[in-house]
Automatic annotation (TrEMBL):
Domain N-acetyltransferase: 2-156
Gene3D superfamilies listed in its UniProt record: 3.40.630.30
PROSITE patterns: GNAT (PS51186)
Record protein name field: N-acetyltransferase domain-containing protein
Length: 167
């Protein structure tokens, strides 16, 4: 996951919430949304290691293909993400929500008409709905079959491919 995040952050499109003022070296970054641009003509999984990570990535790619945001919204590219995280000391302060809202600025700078992401945690799904994202595809982890394999048969909760457009 770290390799994917590093590669994605190299695009310069990721969002970071930084604590202003003295916070100590462990608390300057209080949240991040690792975003990048997904292109219709470029589909690469890259090299990944670890059974669980491969399963998570294959699951996210499968639900993304199922929702086909390129076709649904008539776009060639869009802003996507591979992680929304807020330091536990800063939960409840709307940092995750503000990071999702900030995608609009990134989209405008990159001339993108929309953003879309597979949200896997109930908290991020709630924040995305609050920020105006619509659910495109919703599936239960325990039932979601990717090429004959259910990678997370014992996991509660849902996967949601969600999207938001900008004018």
């Amino acid at each position: 996951m770290q390799t994917l995040w590093r590669k994605t952050m190299e695009s310069g499109a990721s969002l970071v919430a930084i604590l202003e003022g003295p916070g100590g070296p462990d608390h300057n970054i209080v949240g991040a949304n690792i975003t990048g641009v997904s292109h219709k003509k470029i589909k690469e999984m890259g090299q990944c290691h670890g059974k669980q990570f491969k399963g998570a990535l294959r699951t996210a790619l499968a639900i993304t293909d199922e929702g086909d945001l390129f076709e649904k919204y008539g776009v060639e590219n869009y802003l996507t993400a591979y992680g929304l995280s807020v330091h536990p000391d800063y939960h409840g302060l709307e940092i995750g929500y503000k990071l999702l809202e900030s995608r609009e600025y990134v989209c405008k700078e990159l001339d993108l008409k929309m953003t879309g992401t597979v949200f896997t945690a109930a908290a991020s799904q709630h924040l995305a709905k609050k920020a105006g994202f619509e659910v495109v595809v919703e599936r239960e982890f325990k039932d979601y079959n990717v090429n004959g394999i259910v990678y997370f048969p014992n996991m509660p909760g849902k996967l949601m491919l969600m999207a938001k457009t900008y004018s």
